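Residues determine shape. Take a concrete instance:
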Amino acid sequence: MEFLKSGDGRYYFMVAIIKQNENISRKLIRARDLLDAETEILKNLNFGEQLLGFEVCSIPKILPTLRC
C-alpha cells in the first residue's frame, strides 16, 4: 500500500473491516491516503464497533460484491 502515501491528491476506494461483537462487516469508503481513511471511518463508527483494518481494492473487484 505504499502508493497510498504518495500524496498525489487522487482518491482511492478502500474497504474498512469492522468488528462488532462476533460479527465482521465491511464498509466501502473513499479516501486520499490511509490517514484520511482512518479518520473518516473512526468518526463514523457506531458504539461497540472496532476498526480491524483496511483492504485497498479496485472498482472492478468491489462492484460484484456490493449489495444495495
Q: What stands out?
A: Residues 34-42 form the longest helix (9 residues). The helical segments are 34-42, 59-62. The chain has one domain: 2-65.
